[in-house]
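Homework help board

Subject: predicted structure for assignment chain

Our instructor gave us this sequence and asked us to write out the predicted structure in token form, then describe one feature. I got the tokens but I'm not sure how to describe them. Can anyone check?
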Amino acid sequence: MKHFSYIFLGLLVLLWLPSCGIKTKIKRADRKFAIGEYYEAGELYRQIYPRVDKTNKQLKGRIAFNQGECYRILNSSKAVTAYQHAVSCKYYQQDSTVFLRLGQVLQYQGKYSQADKAYTQYLEAHPNDYVAQAGKYACAQIGAWKKEPSRHQIKAVKEFNAKRTSNFSPAFIGTDAGAVMFTSNRQEKSSDSKKAKRVSPVTGAMTFNLYTSRRDKNMKWGEISLPEGLYGNNEANAEQENDSTSQKTGSQELGICSFTGDGKTMYFTFSQPINGQDLGTKIFTSTRIGGEWGEPQEIKLFLDSSISVGHPSINPAGDTLYFATDAPNGFGGKDIWMAELEGDTWINIQNLGPQINSSGDEMFPCIRYDGQLYFSSNGHPGYGGLDLFKAVPTGEKDTNDLRLWDVYNMATPFNSNGDDFGITFDGETENGLFSSNRGQKKGYDLIYSFVLPELVYLVEGKITDTNGDPIVDGTLRLIGNDGTNQKLQVRKDGTYHLKLNKDVKYAMLATSRGYLNQKEQLTTEGLKDSRTYTQNFTLAPLSKPVKMDNVFYEFGKWELTPESEASLNSLVKLLNDNPNITIELSAHTDMVGDSIANKELSEKRAQSCVSYLIRSGIEKERLTPVGYGESKPVVADQALHKKYPYIPIEQVLDEAFINKLESPQQRDVCNQINRRTEFKVLKTTYKLY
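My token output:
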């Protein structure tokens, strides 16, 4: 019995020890989660989850959910699996937010249909939740959005993007944009010990610092270096234990900066856990004296020092600061606020309101010279993760005296299903830099450049005669409703090439001595992309008849077919373009049949054409219908000979010539050529005197 008691006691100890170990790990993980050390907390939750008894679904679901939260914040693809584990443990019975988070991370991975289902499940319990509504709406619209990208062109900036590191939130140093500063966790070596920076317990990556680079005369980015004067000797700190739950001092991190227009004053985000306490993030400022930055000073925005503030963006004048914070009385998550500088004091500190801020996170503000605000959000409808948005002030205020904005998603290529954020502009241009982790399996952030290509509108073409030969002395006049009045002599081959202006209606007039004028119209109004118009002109001669192609009649009759309208409408346009001419409109038949009947048929056909022109608004005094029957066969010119080599130049296609042709097909072709409708100019002075 004694031996049995010892064995039983030993088994109890063995069972008790793992249980104590799990509880200790859960407490440690929860503590790290609470202070924002998401990387280490996530790793602890990952180890704990399979060891929690399957029957304890409540605890197992919470562990899985917290693990998902850590991975979501760290942009890890493992968040999806963690949230799905939480759902399988029915954690939604404790907190239905798991469906919202699952929808967000699925959308982040571009799995829009699955994300839509998760949002739908969350909305069943929270039908008025804006973030879920926005996510579901975005999943439905994503196909249409991708068909309407911005005109901007982007590419990764290889000079800034070190391998296996995150590089983000670039900021030009002043409006001249000759230098840039950005945030990076690239590995630095100390000068003597060659020890690397420590790994952050928050991200599991190297701690973040600010780095700078300058353009050379060829606009190429130079060496990447730490800003002079901003950093002291951190080697002693670098050797300390990096665990804010211990009694050691955690490592400092600097990043996400902004500059006044003159480039002399910088604002940046600073973070340093001390003595096991997370002090959150603060905004510091530094002034450049000569080539070095001075001692940083913390700016005070709230009386409560525990409120975290970061992501500063100072306007060029240096008197208005925009920043991100989770201060009380916000709209949920992180919001964008603003403050104004009066002397040495920040006043009028206020939330930017519900048009900018949502129940999600709004961060990384960038204020421009013209008052337009750019920021990133995962609360407004977007492609997934953080999207870049543009907010334009309307000039009006609401009942709470808050400025009103028109807010726009910046579309692709700026936005993707990943995180897109940290934009900066090259002076007053529409070119600049931003950051994104799109396509990065390990979530690394890269810096991209963007340019807005100039919209180029062109019109080009050729002026020819009715045979297709170039008119070498053709002239083109271009008249626009913006005051443009340009005259151009075409090239020797009849071609021309003209540049057009944006949002202008144009009239074009092609002329040449011995030819009728031709007018055309085009517009660049409302065009979102560059475009080259092709506008050819075919000028009819004044001195000889012009055959009208594609004028057809019912067989053996004079009624026009519907297919004839296009050609007749072209003649209407020509007559309107040349309001001082009168014409003879003639119809011709072939030699088949009775000559008297043919003449009568041709007269009626000519009259049918004239009647159409009159119905189209042409004055009847300008039109003379004539039916020639078979009395005026065609005289072949070079163009006809080129098309039908068996017909000599200057050959009259009369009965004698046609009957001599050996091939029935050739005789049919000649008869068809003779069956035609033509017009020729009679006068060019109608109503001139």
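Reply (TA_rk): Your tokens look well-formed. For the description, you could write something like this. The CA atoms of residues 42 and 67 lie 5 Å apart. That's the kind of observation they're looking for.
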